[in-house]
Amino acid sequence: MTYTARPSAVSQPASAPALPQGPDQAPHAAAGDPAARGDGAPAAEGAPAAAKPARKERDPFFDNAKFLAILLVVVGHALGGVLRSPLAESVYMFIYMFHMPLFIVVTGYFSRNWTFSSGKARKLIATVGVPYVIFEFAYSAYDWLVGGNELKVTLLDPYYLTWFLCALFLWRLSTPVWQQIRWPLAVAALFSLLSYMTDLGATLNLHRVIGLLPFYVMGLMLKPQHFELIKKPQARLLGIVVLIGGFAVAYLTMNHMARGWVYWDHSFRHFGVDNITGIAMRLAMFACATTLLFAFLTIVPRRKTWFTALGAYTLYAYLLHGFFTKLLSFAGVWKTDWAASVPGVLTLIVGSLVLGTLLCTLPVVRSTKWLLEPNTTWVFTKLRRPGGGRAKRQAKATPGEDRGTVSAEMGR
Q1: Are 98 and 289 spatial neighbours (Cβ–Cβ below 8 Å)?
Q2: Does Transferase show up as a keyword for this record (predicted)?
């Protein structure tokens, strides 16, 4: 849908929804800043304390992009129950053709420097893993108490929109691998295509995790100069034309293509096609999503706007809006004839835009921060290394000794 919560200096997932601008999403931190690197190099004795480098200012372009992208997500989910309306279905199909790839590419871009060093693994657990567990329980309880369904909690089968946090956790863990192989995007695309040849079931939503992986890797491969290309005036004009064409394609094909293709969560067999046809269809979906997501980025404002600051809190909108869209189903709103009428669809769209905006505002962030960004320091302990302190003491006591002795000790 990566991955944002604090505008401090760190990382989608969320995007994707973008994650709290705490961990790993900080292009603003100076590359040479020891604090940013976490190397802890001591200053020379007697030397005056160096002034702390100023953080680079946040690029409003990306905050604008994340905010507009989360609005697409909210609108898409709000229309999910009235697809019997041609207007709703055409808008829905158009959004679903690229909105999650867009989030994932941006999340991957801000994950380029992700490693297991400097406490980033802890930040991944605190800002992705813990919210995943919390909202998996929260949505399951909501489905039970409000929806009247059977209570079912399973962390291995992500509920509704929590799949993105599960996917982002796994993508982030794989980041060092993609940064070290020769053709990362080609390899990721190959894995994605092969994954659809087998039914992987619902566990961890693996079809989406592996199927959408190329977009995350694409984000890892992008550089700032690539985004400068789409900021040119001529690119914006081309982007508008492409988006209009994309909507026309969605409208013309919505009754001739299985809707499940845009969900990225089913094998080729599910659609009743052979592997060759399925691969061709998936490649077409890759090309379509990539074209549309970059076309969308061309129309994103480059300068600060009234909604720029809201782009730092898109994870809040992502995780919270599902309670409202689920309520449309539980309350029977989607089943009414009015909801599927043109005025009803337009009302759902406008209401979704307002809801998505409100969920990114500071009052909502402050009142729900305990839920999305709980204090998790008590969960962690000092890093445990193989062999503990005994191996280190032995290594220091016998510096000239064969290192194999220490290795054998650490291997016990």
Answers
A1: yes
A2: yes
On whether the CB atoms of residues 23 and 127 are closer than 8 A, the answer is: yes
CA separation for the pair 387, 122 (Å, rounded): 22
pLDDT-derived band at 233, boundaries 50, 70, 90: confident
User: Quick one: pLDDT at residue 162?
Assistant: 95
**Residue among 11, 9, 23 at smallest CA distance from 54:** 9
Distance CA 163, CA 156 (A): 10
Amino acid, res. 115: T
| C-beta separation of 251 from 140 below 8 A | no
Q: Are 14 and 168 in contact (CB under 8 A)?
A: yes
Q: Are 207 and 260 in contact (CB under 8 A)?
A: no
Are 304 and 60 spatial neighbours (Cβ–Cβ below 8 Å)?
A: yes
pLDDT of residue 282: 97
Query: Which tokens in the block code for residue 213?
Result: 């992986």
In this structure, what token pair is assigned to residue 225? 């100069």
Tokens of 356: 């998505």
pTM: 0.81
